[in-house]
Amino acid sequence: MIEFTAAQVASFIGGKVDGDAAAKLKNFAKIEQGKSGDLCFLANMAYEEHLYTTEASAVIVSEDYTPSKNVNTTLIRVSNPYEAFAKLMAMADSKKAKSKGVSELAFIAPDVKVPDSCLVEEFVVIKPGAQLGDNVQIHSQVYIGENVKIGNNVVLHTGVKIMHDCVIGDRCILNPGAVVGSDGFGFAPGDNGNFSKIPQLGNVVIEEDVEIGANTTIDRATMGTTRIGKGTKLDNLIMVAHNCEIGSHNVFAAQVGVAGSTKIGSYNQVGGQVGFAGHLKIGSYCRIAAQSGIMDDLKDKSSVIGAPALPATRFFRIYSIFKKLDELSAKVRELEKK
Length: 338
Known about the structure:
Layout: E1 4-5, H1 6-13, E2 16-18, E3 24-25, E4 27-28, E5 38-41, E6 58-62, E7 74-78, H2 81-94, E8 101-102, E9 107-108, E10 119-120, E11 125-126, E12 131-132, E13 137-138, E14 143-144, E15 149-150, E16 155-156, E17 161-162, E18 167-168, E19 173-174, E20 179-182, E21 187-189, E22 195-197, E23 203-206, E24 211-212, E25 217-219, E26 225-228, E27 233-234, E28 239-240, E29 245-246, E30 251-252, E31 257-258, E32 263-264, E33 269-270, E34 275-276, E35 281-282, E36 287-288, E37 293-294, E38 303-305, E39 310-311, H3 312-322, H4 325-337
Parallel strand pairs: 4-5, 5-6, 6-7, 8-10, 9-11, 10-13, 11-14, 12-15, 13-16, 14-17, 15-18, 16-19, 17-20, 18-23, 19-24, 20-25, 23-26, 24-27, 25-28, 26-29, 27-30, 28-31, 29-32, 30-33, 31-34, 32-35, 33-36, 34-37, 36-38
Antiparallel strand pairs: 1-3, 2-7, 21-22, 38-39
């Protein structure tokens, strides 16, 4: 991070300085580990105690935050500390010099044009008909299949596999081991009990500003397109099956599984290990707790928990009874004896 004053940092994020506006900042740090020259943030009040002991030169806090003790650091007040800190980190990351050039150990089809702004590392394979945008970073052992289209400013980390005919939008990030466009799990049961493979002839389209976690798999459609909408963030070890359509600006935690042909709206928050049955229609702005089993369609702004999932308010009413089942059982046995 280049050195800035607290006043300059505040101007980048629309904040106000409470304290020494000339405090010099050159590194990011956790609030509990902050040292002189560090910039930290406080968004979760569970960490408030560290505000009073940190040696950091400045801390980003909420604009309406009132300390309960004396503070020895400069405060930068903003409406959303977490978002502001993330914005600053992204700005710092964008200033890093990006490598470019093509390794002699990469295997690139003769008809593929690699822009001068791109990086292609060792043992990358790019098949015929593939198209690369500008400033694409392709790290070692990435496979890019026939007729794949990759937009501008895309990052493909080590071991990513993008199978034939798939499309990756601008500014996407695919983390190590992600697989896009593998065959969907399609088999037709026969009269003799055997299963015959159904050819998977579609593709996958990843829209712009999507991030896909390590070892996440997104299957190609049987026909048509499996689609991930713009701005959606998928964590590690997620499975999206064939012909699914996931809207924009969703966030899925690790180990979510989405069965085939399920359609999910936008701005949903999905906890880890949630399972979606196939052919469902899920609305937008839903909140789905970890390990929930989604067996039915959900309307917009649903909040559910449990397996099978129930509305959160109903689940907690039932759970309050469940916690007392041993007591209730003992009372029933007493009554039976009487």
